[in-house]
Structure formats: structure tokens, C-alpha cells
Give the backbone structure.
Amino acid sequence: MIPARKAGRCASLMKASQRIRQEIAAVFANTAMPIEAQARCGPFGLRLGFSSRELAGTFLPAYIQCTPETIDLDLCFSAADHHDFSALVPEAAEKPRLLIEDGIYSVWQPAVIPVLFAVDLAAKRGVAWLPQGEAPPWIRSRPAISLIHAMMHETPWCAVHGAAVGSGAGFTLLAGEGHSGKTTAALACAKAGWLYAGDDFIAVNSETGQIEPLFCSARLRPALVETFRSFIGETTEVSDFNGEPRHELSLADLGDRIGGGRLRAIFIPRRRGAATLEFTPARQSDAFRALLPTTAYELPGWPNEIAEKVARIAGLAPVFFADTGTAPMEIPAAFTRQLERL
């Protein structure tokens, strides 16, 4: 349950961005996080703070933990038991809300399990607040991605909905809707020794084509458990939201094989019944349509800028439809052959 909102004439007269900036500053001024970690997320270095072990256990497995050269964002994960951000919840709490004002970016996502994200871009501080102490599965696998999106706004970088893997033949970006085969292809390549940059959202530089991983997570359908048993530990959590069970995987054990590289091709997986993997030439517009809808839907704010970046990314490399066939472990070799032809 969301706590009662704070009252007061001064609070009501204060701009929303000022209230958010003040609340964020108070968290970092008055609170020592009991659990801290550092990570890299795309082109950024993060310092992560968690107000409880439970929250750390929920979100840390998705992050690529390391010691970055610079800290671009201090990010605190907290729940109602530790901080009261109810003053930042819109009056119509059942509706989503986006605020972009005076260097503040804030997103209220009510849904079944509400979440508040807010970042002070000037101070490089952000918060993820979970009123109920928990988060939906898709947020656990890509925690606070909307704040990373906000940090990318004035850069060439873009968080895009897709998977990406790379080998000596180059990096491929896998674009398409859910259930199209992106995760299958990405994990098959990771199992074969390729570099892994993600199966859900990845970071792409829209000018250079450089790809970097945002997270080390993956969400696997039960039907693929036996194929990718080596990625599934005994305690891997299984989420079931809206009747869609998923094994929530952390691929942190891949170590140095979680990484990025230069985009060489864009493959659009689809299942059309081929026995073995088949490639068909596609257009830049096909890649644009495969990348944009979920990217724009999941990342609130600046839709025109997102579309422009995605259009540039779609034009950086050759594009192919890829009917991924019925033998997942044949995908890496087929990808290699196609990349070497380019």
C-alpha cells in the first residue's frame, strides 16, 4: 500500500522538479546504504546502494558488477519501509506519470506492482522506489533502465530493445518482438563461446555502431530449459506474470564474455518453419520497425529522438530476416557463415 502523501502549503507551492531534487538529495545526505556495489551499464559506471539485503538480492544479479573508471550515477534502491517518497506519487496514483523538468527525470509506473524512478541529471543521483518492496519480473531483469535512458538523452547512445552477441566475425544485433527467437539465438551463441551483450535491452551508439551490454540477465521460457541447462542454477527464480513463466537468469558467470563490440549486421529472427537456419535480405525499414515499437514503449520520454537514433542504427549495417530453424545449437555456426560473407 502506498503511504499517505505528505501535506503542507510549502510542498504544494514547490515545483515538482524541486520536490524531487530535494527528496533525492535527502536520501544521499542522510542515509548510509547497508549494501553497496559498483557496476557498468552500457557506457556508464554506477554506484549502487540498497536499503536492504532483499532488494540487493532482487536487483544485483542483473548488473555487470565491476569497478568502473568513473561513477556516472549514484543509484539507490529503496522500499516504503526505508524511505517515504509518497509525496512524489501523482494525485491520480492509478495512472502512469512522466516528468521531465529542470534536469529532473521521473517516471511513476503504477501497474499491479508500482515503481517510482527518478534521477537528478545534474547531481548524477537517482532513486528506484518500490512502495510494496517488490518489482515486476521485467524490471528485475533490467533495473532502472528508464534512468539510463534519461542519461543517454543528450548522447549518441540509445538503449534499444534487442539482443546482441559477437564473435571474431563481428557483432550482430537481434531485433524483433517477444517470442521471435532472440533469447534462443543469443543464448545459443553464448553457449558456443561468443561474447554476450544481452537478450532484452542493449546499448548502441547510433553514430559508431558500438554495442555495449546494459545487464547480464536473461529471461528463459520453460520449453528451453533442457537446451540451456548449463545456464540455470538450482536456485534460479521462476517468475510467472500474466501466465508467462520465465526462468530469471543471471549470466554473471560468463565473466569476460559479457562484452560488446562493433555492429556488423542486424538479424531479425522469425519462425517460419525452416528445418535449418535461413537468411533473407531485409531493408533498413524492416530493422527500424523491428527495433522501435518496444523500445519507444518501454522508455518514456523523447519519442522523436528515440526514433531518430533507432533510424540511424537501422542504417549502420546490412539487415537480414533469419528463420532460426528447429536446432538452436546450429545457430552460432550459421550466424558465423553469414557474418563472414559480408
In short: Confidence is low (pLDDT under 50) at residues 1-11. The CA atoms of residues 24 and 76 lie 9 Å apart. DSSP finds nine helices and 20 strands in the chain. The two ends are 55 Å apart (CA to CA).
